[in-house]
Amino acid sequence: MSVTAARGFLASGISAGIKDSGAPDLALVVNRGPSCAAAGVFTANRVQAAPVRWSRRVLAGGQLAAVVLNSGGANACTGPAGERDAQAMAARTARALGVRAEEVAVCSTGLIGVPLPMDRVTAGIDTAAGALSAEGGEAAARAVKTTDSVHKTAQVTEQGWTVGGMAKGAGMLAPGLATMLVVLTTDAAADAALLDTALRAAVRTTFDRVDSDGCMSTNDTVLLLSSAASGLVPEAAAFTEAVHTVCLDLARQLVADAEGASKEIEIRVLGAAGEADAEEVGRAISRNNLLKCALHGEDPNWGRVLSAIGTTSARFDPDRLDVAINGVWVCRDGMAGEPREKADLTPRHLTLTVDLRTGEDSAVLWTNDLTADYVHENSAYSS
Amino acid sequence: MSVTAARGFLASGISAGIKDSGAPDLALVVNRGPSCAAAGVFTANRVQAAPVRWSRRVLAGGQLAAVVLNSGGANACTGPAGERDAQAMAARTARALGVRAEEVAVCSTGLIGVPLPMDRVTAGIDTAAGALSAEGGEAAARAVKTTDSVHKTAQVTEQGWTVGGMAKGAGMLAPGLATMLVVLTTDAAADAALLDTALRAAVRTTFDRVDSDGCMSTNDTVLLLSSAASGLVPEAAAFTEAVHTVCLDLARQLVADAEGASKEIEIRVLGAAGEADAEEVGRAISRNNLLKCALHGEDPNWGRVLSAIGTTSARFDPDRLDVAINGVWVCRDGMAGEPREKADLTPRHLTLTVDLRTGEDSAVLWTNDLTADYVHENSAYSS
């Protein structure tokens, strides 16, 4: 049920003709209230798309009545005209819904550097407004797909309230944030402050720890809207946990659907002298092309894990590093441990465990293998 | 002529049986003097192979009588036994040549985590010592190849003195240093201090700016040995320039032969407010898998260049970035410039120019495209 799993929300997804293929490419998510509290997290990339600049600005007030999203064009690196286009999308949506433009967030995804076909976009917004329904969550999730092979939705229902959401993203997946658009909704009566706290906490250990290809997008946006339609004020910890669960579910769906991937790799870094150390080590491993090729080839090449760890500033002793692949400790004390042949790398899901043996902290990251299909998908045409 | 282009040096390369294929895998470079001054630069990876630890230690005195090198095994992550093996290689070489073990550097390359077959290595050292000749430079260069498709040598002759050298490296090419072994020799009468100064200056803008796949090796070593056999004391600037020329020649050969590469990409970052900014931007671009796939597909996807620049901390205004591909300014002021169709990406050599328009500093880096062949070469077998 995606963004319409929670009460108080309408959504739609339609084909506006932005994509040449005729596939769905425009979505609306509308908050019918009574509350319009919202929070958002945006890409850390310093080159930011016009819709990111717009949405960041309108979200400063902690209120959103609607989100308009399009695939088929990122509206990034499009200059002053792109800024006007993002604003025009908000204005047209606001007019169709009877709200103010400053209550409408805008999200775009697709090729960088190409202007949007605004005549089609504005006509599409009107069509999408006419198609809004309380069952529109799935259609909205489909309309934001780019190279995604499947649409991604998740939801959690707690004592009387729900957190649901949708995500898109298949390439340019890297931290701060991954390349993606995510809209989460809830009918819990959470104010903007709680939404912000819960969202930041959840993103930090989910979307921010997905690193498919080390490439950071110009358009990443994660929004969380509350309608308060349940009338129930959630306990903060339970609400944060629910948001985390939905984010984690969506984040793992992103990794599972990463471009060309044949393996989903969970990197568990243990025994770190600080969470930052664990995260740095996990990130270095997740970005190591040579290792990701080896895992694609089902080769338990732990030497490439150690060479990746060695590039970090984390605290460790090279002669006390342990590495397990799918539970087999192929490296002990920085050298060969159990026979590498014992590690079975044939499953799609692989777990790589690193024990730094210097402390008690840990972090989990998710990545995938590097495949010829990834190269093909990102070289054969512009995306 | 490689390492034997300069007078006073002997070299050899033989098959010791370390590689199953029977290909050459052991090389010696011997300095006959009268001087034995030497300098070295080693990997910045904190996981360092036993031969790197050994060579770093013996080079502290600024003197080297010989270098023994093997391919077919990195002797990295091999624990205390690996340390003993590296020392045994130096000791055996020293005995065969009548020098002290503390005057012998050791370099190894190949798979990480596997012990060397020391019986074959020691027998091979004796064979190599018997094969030493003043024409042995090419044979030595061939014996250090791993996945290299060709051996790499370079030389420069100035007023009466020569700098020559050999390099190996085809994957795990990344800064600090690239994955490689390099031995340079000169018959100029340069003392250890000048050798060190010239080598560090040269490496900083050559090998340290090669970034093939963002992966940093455990075994990188660059050595420079002087025999002083010319009897000529070089002018420091001319000597530094000659070392730089040889390093640049070898560095570009490394990029040209990078695993699976179909494009050699020169990244020129101009208009930076500091060389460090220029280098950081160049490095971010050189590591962007999505861009490297696009260039492989001959797609002038400048949006991926901007998204890479945006991940750096360099000083720039996103709305004033210019990007040219092979001389066509496809991005001006952070948005589409000349028609992207005008950029011809069919040549093997591509030049990507970024003008940050914030200062006067610049840097040049070299990388290559990301190809299905790279994935195949690094997934089909251990290396």
UniProtKB/TrEMBL annotation, chains A, B:
Organism: Streptomyces physcomitrii
Site (Involved in the stabilization of negative charge on the oxyanion by the formation of the oxyanion hole): 109-110
GO function term, MF aspect, one: L-glutamate N-acetyltransferase activity, acting on acetyl-L-ornithine as donor
PANTHER family: ARGININE BIOSYNTHESIS BIFUNCTIONAL PROTEIN ARGJ, ARGININE BIOSYNTHESIS BIFUNCTIONAL PROTEIN ARGJ, MITOCHONDRIAL
Reactions this protein catalyses: N(2)-acetyl-L-ornithine + L-glutamate = N-acetyl-L-glutamate + L-ornithine; L-glutamate + acetyl-CoA = N-acetyl-L-glutamate + CoA + H(+)
Record EC number: 2.3.1.35, 2.3.1.1
Record site feature (Cleavage), residues: 178-179
NCBIfam families tied to this protein: ArgJ, PRK05388.1
Amino-acid biosynthesis is among the record's keywords: yes
Annotated residues for binding of substrate: 146, 168, 179, 259, 378, 383
Gene field: argJ
Pathway listed: Amino-acid biosynthesis; L-arginine biosynthesis; N(2)-acetyl-L-ornithine from L-glutamate: step 1/4; Amino-acid biosynthesis; L-arginine biosynthesis; L-ornithine and N-acetyl-L-glutamate from L-glutamate and N(2)-acetyl-L-ornithine (cyclic): step 1/1
Family the entry assigns: Belongs to the ArgJ family.
Keyword Transferase: yes
Chief localisation class: cytoplasm
CDD domains assigned to the protein according to its UniProt record, in alphabetical order: OAT (cd02152)
Subunit structure and binding partners: Heterotetramer of two alpha and two beta chains.
Active site residues per record: 179
Function: Catalyzes two activities which are involved in the cyclic version of arginine biosynthesis: the synthesis of N-acetylglutamate from glutamate and acetyl-CoA as the acetyl donor, and of ornithine by transacetylation between N(2)-acetylornithine and glutamate.
Protein name, entry field: Arginine biosynthesis bifunctional protein ArgJ
Keywords, comma-separated and alphabetical: Acyltransferase, Amino-acid biosynthesis, Arginine biosynthesis, Autocatalytic cleavage, Cytoplasm, Multifunctional enzyme, Transferase
Subcellular locations according to the entry: Cytoplasm
Alphabetical list of InterPro entries matching this protein: Arg_biosynth_ArgJ, ArgJ-like_dom_sf, ArgJ_beta_C
